[in-house]
Amino acid sequence: MQIKSLWACIFNRHVKQTSDDTSILNRYWKQPRPSEFLSQHAQTIRAVVGNATAGADAKLIDALPKLEIVSSFSVGLDKIDLTKCKEKGIRVTNTPDVLTDDVADLAIGLMLAVLRRICECDKYVRRGEWKFGDFRLTSKFSGKRVGIIGLGRIGLAIAKRAEAFDCPIKVMDALGPSGVLINIGRGPHVDEPELVSALVEGRLGGAGLDVFEKEPEVPEQLFGLENVVLLPHVGSGTVETRKDMADLVIGNLEAHFANKPLLTPVV
Fold it and tell me: Which listed residue, 124, 144, 162, 265, has the most CB atoms within 10 A of its CB?
């Protein structure tokens, strides 16, 4: 039996291919009149699929009286009203673990890119400046003290990788003008205006940022800073991991509607 589900945002091809046999998709993000769409289909929708940018807020949950489960294509649950889900007995799942390695790898990559000025070096060669002299000296990564905020799955994976570079792992402390901030978590976790000011004024040595406070908007002041590496929220953005995440999303839906234990339950 196919289940009618509401998809809150665009998903990759693998999610669509995997879900075609198990659910009838309602592409909510494509609807020019969301309220009208909900009034017509609310009584038949039993599942919502979202991600880190679009999920199920209280208004959407209240508009779907038959909703049974919200399956998130992300680890973060910022866009899901968990309190409302608990009140209504709605199950919630996410996609932990499968993206841990990719995000941790990227964090180390950003540390190396910022300290060794890899992006600057690339531009230096492309601009033909190498023929006029060597690139300026950079900063060593191996042995640097690494402070990690939040030793969850990803934090522990970063610590394990950093230890391979002989980096002592410490509780987070003030960074100072030689410090580097890496953010691969959530943009709002960092005071973005203060971060920009610290970088512009030289109070912070550099930053590697994969997430921002108001994505996809990025503070323009960062564009001209050579000691900053900017990425478009691609922490889990590999073919392998996105496939694994898609399998978890669909697997949780299949498990729920087959009255089996959820693979990665949150609520």
Answer: 162
Residue 18 in contact with residue 62, Cβ under 8 Å? no
Count H helices, E strands: the chain? 9, 10
Instruction: Report the predicted TM-score, pTM, of the whole model to 2 decimal places.
Output: 0.87
Assign 17 to helix, strand or coil. helix
Which secondary structure element, helix H or strand E, spans residue 247, and what is its range? helix 239-257
If you search the block for the tokens 């990559």, which residue do you land on? 109
41 is an active site residue = no
User: In this structure, are residues 120 and 130 in contact, taking their beta carbons and an 8 Å threshold?
Assistant: no
Which is the catalytic residue, given 87, 163, 194, 215? Answer: 215
What is the distance between the terminal CA atoms of the chain, rounded to a whole angstrom? 25
For residue 251, which of 241, 262, 238 has the smallest C-alpha distance? 262
Please indicate whether residue 36 is annotated as part of the active site: no
At which residue do the structure tokens 């060669």 appear?
A: 125
Rounded Cα distance between 234 and 196, Å, is: 21
What is the C-alpha separation between 104 and 3, in angstroms, rounded?
A: 36
189-242 residue pLDDT tens: 999 999 999 999 999 999 999 999 999 999 999 999 999 999 999 999 999 999
Can you tell me the distance from the alpha carbon of 53 to that of 211, in angstroms, rounded to the nearest whole number? 12
Query: How much is the mean pLDDT over the chain?
Result: 91
Q: Max CA-CA distance within the chain?
A: 70
